[in-house]
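Protocol step 4 of 5: obtain the predicted structure for the target chain.
Materials: sequence only (see below). No template structures provided, no constraints applied. The aim of this step is simply to have a reference model before the mutagenesis design in step 5. Sequence pasted as it appears in the construct record:
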Amino acid sequence: MISMDAAHKAKLMHDLRVVIDDAQELLRMTADQVGEGAVGVRARIEARLAEATRELKHIQEAAVNSAKAAGDATDEYVRDHPWQSIGIAAGLGLLAGLLLRKQ
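Step 4 output (structure tokens):
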């Protein structure tokens, strides 16, 4: 499976939410349409929307769990290596200061 960074996952979740919202709006707008064909199409769309909503919820839960795990790992590292963490933070601060100063 292709690895996705957080920004791509967030964009995918946003895009999926927009598609779901648009499809739900379309279903509301065509609620007065009758006929066997319209009923069948509406049923299929509703089923697919429910599936997409469940998948979106699953993706969001996975992203939250991943962020929590990263936070826990960072917290554990900082607690186990406090002086190294201070050194890394100071180095990053110095680097950021130098980069901002040149602009």
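Step 4 remarks: The radius of gyration is 23 Å. DSSP finds three helices and no strands in the chain.
Proceed to step 5.
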